[in-house]
Amino acid sequence: MHNEPTALIVIDMQQCMQSPAAGVRNNPEAEQNIHTLLHAWRDAGGPVVHVRHMSRSPTSLFSPGQPGAAFQPALAPLDDEYVVEKNVPDAFIHTGLERWLHVRGIRQLVIVGVSTNNSVEASARTAGNLGFRTVVVSDATFAFGQKDYAGVPRSADEVHAMSLANLNGEYASIMATADALNLL
């Protein structure tokens, strides 16, 4: 694993994710953990991909031209880092991400960002299905509270934990920031 490049994929770390309008979330330390991973990857010269959601809905917090669609300054891409723009949750759909990774011989991915049960889970499922060795970093991702299909309110921690459980083993390995740093 250590002799080949491992890409850090940073999903949807846009300004609107810091807005109270986004909802009640978990993992308040996620941004710091993403920052730690991002700088470790940069220091090691590892490949970094930033994914940005650009909604087709003009009322979305992610709508192009809205301040919320911009990257969070502390996690913004450098000029030499690859940026993927998507308009569905999955970073692989209608983007050049898979080809970009294959051209560079990248077969292992470390995924961080938001939200665990939406764009992170969708992208990790596809990555796993495409044969990438995929890691989702549990403390560098976060989710928002929501009602389940039966109408029962679920906390952000519950939504996050269930999403990680959905991914674990079949699509991805789940690990904490400290362990993910060892993949460099």
From TrEMBL:
The keyword Hydrolase applies. Pfam families: Isochorismatase. Residues 6-178 form the Isochorismatase-like domain. Transmembrane segments: none annotated. It comes from the Bacteria. Keywords: Hydrolase. PANTHER family: ISOCHORISMATASE HYDROLASE, PEROXYUREIDOACRYLATE/UREIDOACRYLATE AMIDOHYDROLASE-RELATED. This is Nicotinamidase-related amidase.
